[in-house]
Amino acid sequence: MINSETDTLDRRVRRTHQLLSDALIELTLTQGYDNLTIRDITEHADVAYATFFRHFNDKNDLLHMTLNSLIEAIEGITYDHSNTEQAFAEGYAIFLHVQQHSNLYRLLMDSQGAHHILEKLKHAIAENMLEACIPYIKPSLAHVPPSIITYQHASSIISLVSWWLANDMGIPPEEMATYYLNTVIQPYFDVDPTLM
């Protein structure tokens, strides 16, 4: 019985979080994050104003929860720069994820309150790829610390995603994966083209 009550409570909490998160995304994209009030969010979500504060301290807290799911998903991508086939698959996975969650990415790129989350995302990508990528760093960059290269690489990924969103994702993810290979991978890493 206790498990059933806990499950019901967890479902209710998840539902409340999802309603508030969806409202935050929709309203930020239409009227901007800075102008948004907690009352705007709760009214749009049809959630009681007092309920908001049982779950979050402020709208930044809600924003962080909403965007942390992106960080977890990006951290789950396997980075393998051993050959162009793997690098292409990696790029495709990234742009497919952006396409499937474009509103979240727009929120991340466009919100002032999301700046430090964007930095956290860059660091997460850089740390995630560090070990796997070290063997493939171009010899001409051997004098540069690998952590700088992977951070720059992560920043390039974010810039390419930002450009794609700004251009309404008019290019298919498959084509973006090729551009990812050409502009984000090849400047930093030696990939074996024979396996493509």
Characteristic terms for this protein:
196 residues, Tetracycline Repressor, domain 2, elongated, single chain, mainly alpha, Arc Repressor Mutant, subunit A, 2 domains
Strand content: under 5%
* CATH-assigned fold name of the largest domain: Tetracycline Repressor, domain 2
Global structural class: mainly alpha
Amino-to-carboxy terminus distance: 56 Å
Write the layout of secondary structure elements.
Layout (H helix, E strand, L loop, with lengths): L1 H30 L6 H8 L3 H7 L3 H17 L8 H17 L1 H9 L4 H19 L12 H21 L6 H13 L11
Helix pairs in contact: 1-2, 1-4, 1-6, 4-7, 5-9, 7-8, 8-9
Describe the structure.
This protein is mainly alpha-helical and 196 residues long. It folds into two domains: 2-56, Homeodomain-like (Arc Repressor Mutant, subunit A, Orthogonal Bundle); 66-195, Tetracycline Repressor, domain 2 (Orthogonal Bundle), CATH 1.10.357. It has helices at 2-31, 38-45, 49-55, 59-75, 84-100, 102-110, 115-133, 146-166, 173-185. The mean pLDDT is 86.
Describe this structure in a few short sentences.
The protein is an all-alpha fold. The protein contains 9 helices and no strands.
